[in-house]
Amino acid sequence: MIMEFPYLSAILASSLLGGLAIMLIPDHKHSLIKLVAGISSFISLALSLVVFYLFDASKPGFQFLEKLPWLPSLGISYQLGIDGIGLAMLLLTGIVIFTGVLISAHEFKEGGLLGRVGRPREFFAMLLILVTGVFGVFVSLDLFFLFLFYEIAVLPMYLLIGIWGTGKKEYSAMKLTLYLMLGSAFILLGILALYFTSGLGTFDWFALSNYSFSERFQTIFFPIVFVGFGILAGLWPFHTWSPDGHASAPSAVSMLHAGVLMKLGAFGIIRVALALMPYGAKFWAPYFAVLTIVNIVYGALVAMNQKDLKYVIAYSSVSHMGIVLLGITSLNVISLDGAVFQMFAHGVMTALFFALVGAVYGRTHTRVIADMGGLAKLSPFLAVAFAIGGLASLGLPGTSGFVAEFLVLVGAFRAYPLLAVGAATGVVITAIYVLRVLQKIFFGELNAHYVTEGSQAQTADEFSARHLQKVGSSGHHGFPVAMGDATTAEKIPMAILILVIITMGVWPSLLLRVVNPAVIELVGRIGGLF
Amino acid sequence: MITVKELLIINSLLFAIGIYGVLTRRNTIGILMSVELIFNSACLNFVVFTRALNPTLLSGEVFVLFIIAVAAAEAAVGLALLFNIYRSFKDIATDRYNLMRG
Amino acid sequence: MLRLAELILIFPIVSFLAITFLTRKSEKLSSAVSISAIFLSLVSSLLIFFSLSQAPGSFEFKMPWFATISGFSVELGFLVNPLSSVMLLVVTGVSFLVQVYSLGYMKGDEGYTKYYSFISLFSFSMLGLVLANNLLQMYIFWELVGLCSYLLIGHWYSKPSAANAAKKAFIVTRFGDFGFLVAIILISFKTGTFNFLQIEQLIKAGALSQQLVTVVALLLFAGAAGKSAQFPLHIWLPDAMEGPTPVSALIHAATMVAAGVYLVARTYYLFVFSGTALEVIAVIGAFTAFFAGSIALVQNDIKRVLAYSTVSQLGYMMLGLGVGGFTAGYFHLITHASFKALLFLGAGSVIHAMHTNDIWEMGGLFKKMKVTALTFLVGSLALSGLFPTSGFFSKDAILIQAYHSGHTALFVMGLLTAAFTAFYMARVFFVVFLSKERSAGGHPHESPAVMTVPLVILALFALGLGYYTGPFGSFVLGSEAGGEHHGLLIPLVSNALALLSMLAAWAIYHKELISSDALAARFSWPYKILKNKYYVDEFYAFCVNRILFNVSRLANWFDRNIVDGSVDGVFRLTRFTAVVLRGLQTGLVQNYALGIVGGMVAVWILLRILR
Amino acid sequence: MMIDKYIIYFFSAAMIISALGVVTARNMFHSGLLLGVSLLSVAGIYLLMGAEFLAAVQVLVYIGGILILILFAVMLTHKICDKSIAQTNKQKFWSLAASLAVFAILTASIIKTQFASNTITPRVVSAAEAGLEIFSGNILPFEAVSVLLLAALVGAIMMAGRENEK
Amino acid sequence: MDISLLKLELILSGLIGLIFVLDLLSGSKKIVRYAAVAGSLGVFIASLFIRQTGDAFAGAFISDGLSLIFKSLFLLNAFIVSMLSLGFLEKNGRYTGEYFTLIFSSTLGMLLLASSGELITFYIALELLSISSYVLSAFQKSEQKSSEAGMKYMLLGALASGMLLFGMSLVFGATGSLKFSGIAASLSSGSVPPIAYAGIVLIVVAMSFKIAAVPFHMWVPDVYEGAPSPVAAFFSVGTKMAGFAVLMRLFLTAFGNLRSEWGILMAVLSAATIIIGNLLAIPQTNIKRFMGYSSIAQAGFVLIGLAMATVTGLASSVFYLAGYLFANLTAFGVIIIVGSRVEGDNIDDYSGLAKRSPFLSLALLISLMSLGGVPPLVGFFGKLYIFVGAFENGFAWLVALGVLMSVVSIYYYLMVLKRVYIVPSPDTSPIKLTFWEKASLSICLAGTLGFGLLPLPLFNEILSSVRIFLQ
Asked: A227 vs chain E: nearest CA distance in angstroms?
């Protein structure tokens, strides 16, 4: 393969350069900033689609390989390549960042959620740099670079949540960052251990994957790496950063975080822990599988009891990531197919959710579910979109969520029949809380304060002062409500996400076609326990 | 003749006394004096070793000369700092200048 | 043939999409699109039906949907055989009539186009369910009809009761679906396929153990029980009456609720092979029939009476299947579809006129709504199983089968249920149509033709379908037909009982020879229980509100305070340690010096240890 | 040379006792004087070992320079060097323990060490010899010391200078 | 005796003289300032070209790859600090000449320290460094805190010097030599006498004091807080590095055959240092004090490299220090600039900095993240190299601790960045930077980023010089 166009590097470059370019734009040129961000993320998405199109699903292994030695003394090289699993994630990231940028651009409008805080330049720059990291993880074939990109993906989160978040944002941001840094500490330990124990003096994934580590080594280090990545994937009981973090983050950040970043964890488990330490995987999978069930059922149960809309979604993410992790720990082709599919499905679905929550919040200025009601009258589009998201979340056939959950359950059933049944109960509980939320927010009588006090105009300061008091409290009076249905700027990204949800639900082969060979190869490597 | 060990132990005692002084003297000047004791114990050590090891070796003794020179410089600077403290705090007790802690 | 089957599906989904994306703004166009689509489907179904009647057989079409490993590939496809072709007719027919009826009923409704688009989606889903050639596909459409049911029950979503009912319907059926899903997974695990025909072959080849099949069958029945509102998952159906009445007629009487029965019929070989599962179905069916019938006796909401009646009749069908009367049970599904749809539409017509659901606010409508009243009468008689309506044939076939298969207790329950049925239908009919006029808000008037014509058509079916019973059995069962029991005594007894009940109802409610209030007072205890529907709802409310929500609250508490608390605890501990250590930094220079000297001693000791 | 031995003992005793006085005396001025005694004793020991040049430097620089400077400082800050004020801080116990530990460590090390010769042979080193040694082998530190002294000078003057501005 | 090896030292001495004379003769402090900046830049540039190696003064002065690298770093430090001091000196300009004289003599002490091959030179160089530092700490005479810092530093420094001297005397007595090579030869022949151990312990303690290893670190926060900010910046990098330079040399040449023992000792010290430094940084409210603890923690990481006592270990330590120089000076640069604008050094004073000066905020962000070890900044590679080496040498537990504590360090660095980026401030007037401030920050940032993205050339350079040094 002689010097074909470096698509993967181009994807990385488009978002990185976009981020850097934005930093150079004066802060007050809002529309230019938004434009650059939009173009940059669109290029990423377009290139991801091109890669998706050019990817040859009939060939096993990695494609679009690029390699450039970087620190030869340490055996580090800039090595990119992608298989079906990475490709699914690449596409997901492309979709979510593009829609996320659109949503943020909307929210940065005068009086919008982000507009009140301002500083779009920093926001978009950090967002794009973060996404560079995300893309990077998915395409890296060098453990060092994987780690590097991982860190880049994690850290900007702190400021993104801290500055533009809501509620107890600083606490949440700090908790999230530290927790994830802790995870990355585990990962670093694991990677270094892999690096040294192999004695190959290289971080090259290929080289390491051909080396067979001793069983003892694998039993020790598999859980370290698993937990390290698992933290980001919301593995119980290391998940508590996620509800707080997602609840506090601005829409686009939640979209990206719950939608894509949590997948980094699952992806890391697949790419590093599973692929490099198959014996450890077999040894530990049953134990971790139990944790994932806790994730699923417990996450759903806790979600049921939340009063804050974002917390509901956040805990549902915990629950859904449990499905991903269950699929992974079941260690067979069907379950892993399902896991990857769920990663994709959940990514899109949760992105939609968080976009919607942002839109709802932008209208009601409260996230307390009890204070909403009857919004479907005012914002039918949001109601429909939310319903579709919710239905995907509860695994309704015809949405991507169904295919994913079904595959995982089928696969998990082959490995752990009882656990799979337990996981299926989680799906029932999901129905309860999703519908409950849907009903309380959108159906029923229109909540009185949207009608009576909607017309008052207030200054921004007054607004934020009131707003600050209000978060988390239920009694509130007199805030301006910019009700109404979704604007076009909101509709487009949401429609894209809905389209993806439905498409993947109706035509799952589109994605499974590329994922499946990669998974088969992976399971072949593990040797298939179940 | 007195043995090397005896002398060394005596010097060590001087060293320990100096350290005790540094640790307990509440007056800053007292600490400076104690430091001089420590220096002297080291100087004595050098001389003792020079005499004990190789009478033709002079480096130890030269070292002592340097130490004395440095001690003089250090004392000068130390006292200058001491006056500075005195000027600022109107006191030179060590527990008076502890604005910074934690 | 299969091309036709495809078309059947394509018309409604195209209609759904067209209404959603194109004609949403225009009410006329939307309803026209929807109705013409379902009409085309109806025509296609008829074509299929007739061609199958000419040359019976089973046609299957398959295409891969997605694949993972060999031995686990998921297919989509159609299975067109007599069983499904009949069901297709029912679905498209009732759907068509209901849609026409809705032109009148839903006129001026805010969500008119939304209604039609969802009805189209429902038709699509229901037809997909019927045509499915494998369990997974059936499950998919099964869930989709559930979704449509949810959406249509919640049509007037700003009414909290409607929104609640929709949610309840979805969640309760989903409990059953949980079993369905597990069954699918289990059977695919054991057989490697979802396909009905392949599974049937495997069963026949004895590839599966009886216990396994029993488990699978029971799990499937759990799904069926949820959809078909069998005890104890019946509670959603009465509440589902919050939806528009045509929806109740279509979904919650004729088609979707029968999907459970259809599922059992589709996988009947599993139940037969298991045996135990069949017994369970029979028992639950009989119990549900009796149980719901008894509740229906005291309901005042016309739609709720019909709803409990539906539950009861679905129980009948299950009973029929359970006691081995495959044709009887399935045929009852068909006839029931016609007369229950009729009854609902009739009720809708009344409600449309009166703007109330309470039978005690109606009265003497016979004169003002002749067509409605007459068709309603036909429906009632059919439901009561009186000769010569269709209900007579199907219902008595079930009773006969129950009796002859030796399930005497179930037979008696069935018989009693028949009596109940006759009583409550008579009660409704007398109160609504024949009693003296009551001054209610509405101005009773006959409904427009778009509404009455479907009534008449359905009434004709309710009357005449019974004569199809003979050919039906052989058509559906094919070569395996026969072995059905016949008799004259049982129908006589049941009809006599029904007539007696009607007489009693006539006496109480029409002539008011016996005061209904006095009866209620006399039998206050049973009356209360019935009025409160055996407190099943309360029991569930307890389970959900007290148990589930408390568990959830506990989980939340645990998460916030223990899991997250320990995280915060570590954080606080670190900070606390830092603050404590900070105390060592006293700001006293000699303290620092002591640290240096002490440190020196420590280093020396350390080196000593190391050396 | 028995006398030498006892003279050394005498000087040592004087050195230690006066050093103890330096660190314990309540009056800072007494402390300073005792420091003088201690330094003189050190000079005596130097002398006994034949390090005449060192002894001279000790007396001239240490006693004549440093000690005088210190005493000067004591007098300047006299009013607070009153013996009525506590002259030791509150960490006496730990300080004592630490210094004893240090002493113990050093003594133990010294006792355990095998010296090539355990005796001291005094040798007279003249100023010329010492000077030669400095300029032959230690020119670099010598030059460095000159910079050091310059720096110290600059620093001390700056520190001691009046603060006019500000 | 090749005096040409001392070119750098001579040039620097010349510079000291020049400053001294200029200050006396010229009435303009401005000329002195620019002369100092230009001069330090000149010496730094000279250091990049003077790569002559060899011994002088019979081994008292050693010029080798390691010392040359350190010298360049010291001079860079001096140059950047000179630039950063300009603002400070404009306000406190009376003693400009003295200030630079002291800074440069301190730097000269560092240079000599890095090259010293014998105890006397070592001692004198150390005192040269120290005495200048004491005065510099107390430079703001009118400030109580500054005086206090100077006095505390001086007292503890004198104690440490005393211990060092006593230790040297014992080593001298045990080995009969003042030259490192002689000591090494003596120690490697036969058993090590106990007094040598005692002496080494005392020397280690004295040097640990300079590099601020726990429990000899306590002066650091007080001195950093009290000393003028540019001076604190100067110490935080220069003094620490000088201490490490001499420790490396001592332990690899003079006490070379005790490696295995002091390896573990260093490991223990580094563990204590990392823990205490990181933990105590958490509750700080004064940014300089905070940086003091942070620098303690950083020193702990460098000590890991020393504990390994291998080529890679030492090279990693040196690389780490180089990275630390850039990142720490960036941070201090920001602290100096902000401190001069808001008249305060509380962390709360940094609220809303992002609005007031995006550049400063970004600089602080990058530098603190680099200190926290976030890729792809130079600090990350420092840590990576250190951890890699420690892993190789069986200090996996230390790596685990280090990694864990890096997380803690991220926490407190983020606490500062939280003020900068998140907490709003009532004062939103923009902060304007002078040319010198921009220049110095840009140089440091370039180093932090540049050596982060391309660490290889620097690391290779260090590696090769360390390899030569160890042979």
From this structure: 14
